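subagent[fold] <- orchestrator: predict structure for attached chain, return tokens only, no commentary.
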Amino acid sequence: MQRKENLRQLFVLFICIIGVFALVPVFGQSSPNLRTIAGLQPGSVLFLSIKGDVSGASSLWGTDIYTLDSNVAAAAVHAGVIANGQTGIVAVVICDGLSSYSGSLRNGVQSNSWGSYSLSFRFVGLAQASGSLAQATPSAPPATQTPPTQLKPPTPSTPPLPQPPVASRNLYAFDDPYVLKRNGNFKPGTTFYVQVTGKVSGADVWGTDIYTLDSDLCAAAVHAGILSDGQTGIVKVTILPGQQSYVGSTRHNITSMNYGNYGMSYSLEPVTQSYDQVVWMILDPGTADYIPNVRVGKSYVVWVTGMADQRKIWGTDIYTSDSYIANAAVHAGILKPGESAPVIVHVLEGQPNYEGSTRNGITTKAYGSYERSYTLEPAR
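subagent[fold] -> orchestrator:
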């Protein structure tokens, strides 16, 4: 009799869950984060079928409470609610954004620290989630918060789970020494990284330490003493305002020239920050359709300057592939108008329909079926 009563209660609980929440398809690398779900707000509760996947840990920010654009499959392993490679149902509560998020190493997964972000999420027990339908979600964990469920150690007959890799620290760089000549949107104060090969002949350089924007990067890197002739390396470029005059000099077997007033300048420095890998990025091609050799299921790092003009854009969080990336980045809250940064473009299959909305001063349009899509996330 007791067993029948327990089964009845479980059935009622299941019906309540299905009646209030949608069971979202399996989350993994194909659906990396919750930003693709429209209409989320603090207090929203989701029951997700998740396959733990630590390979997305480089896009994971926070501890216990994570940024909304964090990789959900990696967060579930980090929080201890599911094991890497295991599929199960978890409850996620949407929280207010925090002013900062602290990274940590848990369950073999390294999360990253981050500053302010607009929305967050955390995992809760299934019973706790179903029993708190009318309760508001706190924006930060209470002092008496129950720690995440710990994974049970494997039995002696079961081989231990392999330790997942620690999240990589990426250095995003251009592999194009002519990037300054290909893009006219760089503004003073902007910094980025470029791989160049030093050369001492066949190139023009104007200035010393501060060079005119049209000075050859490969020659300037030698003149500044960062690279030698024929040496390949990555340099840090800082865009500066134009100068009234530029003084030439002879350094490291290369002679730069004098020049008068010029509109924009740059300076060079060696790379001093530590990183685990270099990720190459490209200049904004306009839309995802114009990314060279673009393919569904691939991700690309694009240097984008946010735009707020009225160029056409369709969708919300998931955009048609012919929507302008610069406008979508502002609409998605990743960039502000005029702000420049690398952005990750995840190219997806086409959707049966796209919802329009107004966000951050950008209005997107609704559309029906389209052959290809994309979603965005910050490159950190």
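orchestrator: received. Logging for downstream: Residues 248 and 257 are 4 Å apart (CA to CA). Confidence is low (pLDDT under 50) at residues 7-26, 128-167.
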